[in-house]
Amino acid sequence: MEQPALSVLINNYNYARFVGRAIDSVLSQDARNVEIIVVDDGSTDQSRSVLEAYDSRVKVIFQENAGQAAAINTAVGSSMGEILCFLDADDWWASSKLSATAAAFRANPQASLVYHRLQPTLVDGTPTSKPIPRSLCSGALSPLLTRSAGWWPFPMTSAIAVRRSAWNAAGSIPEQFRISADAWLVGIYPFLGDVIAMPDPLGFYRIHNNNWYRATEDATTLRRRMTHWQQTLEATNLFLSAHKLPARLHLRDHYPYRIASAKLQGADARTRFKLAVEGLFFAGEPNLLRRMRDSLRWAHGLSRLGLDVGLSEATK
What we know:
By secondary structure, this protein is of the alpha/beta class. The protein has helices at residues 16-27, 47-52, 68-77, 97-107, 142-147, 164-170, 181-188, 219-242, 255-265, 269-280, 288-300, 307-314; strands at 6-12, 34-41, 59-63, 83-88, 92-93, 111-121, 160-163, 194-206.
């Protein structure tokens, strides 16, 4: 069977020092019939000169800064491939990523989304920690997402590929997802078809200060994350309603949100025990041993004096 056409869509904003490696990793793929589209979202560094050096090997679009969702939407609108593969400009891929992704879509005609693990690296590209996500989920995931308020061990943007027919059904990414377009992809596409997980780490995820997640959490980071989760849930429910899909998500089922709230507000012994028990049954983590470990660790780490209270005390 002829290999499907693949569109690689790279969003870049002020990553002149990284984007070349991302593009080079696509140019060195062992797959055929690949187009590369880079949308520069109003960079103010040296990105333009880096991108223009690739000439006709890469289609480059420059636009005013509008956020990650807008950049990806622009890239998709200019693409022609049946399979859409997303790559952040600060990440890069193994040489077999595209051929493995195309094979997975061919073998699973009902799949709307295919993903793989990513190997976290330091800024200089040195591998660190184990590939993510640790748990993998395949098949019809919509029942799981309905029980977990949309949470699952989801992949990052650079690990995600979707079928164009699913993109057409979902529509463009809402531009409220300025820095977290993957939240839309992993939250919506499981309701449009099967999800296929490939176990190998076929890409590299660079950890640095501009990433969404941080090594340490403070009150401001937690509140921002909780707001993001709530807005994502609301956007998902609007999508489900508009497409006449019966599922609805409820924030009370979002265990990470409840843990974050307890970190901010503080938790007494009874609350910690209750959250530990709830975590044992949280649908968003399919691996039982990992679910047990995480729920006990998170509940044990909660303090009676929450971060919000601690902040107010420190400012007196």
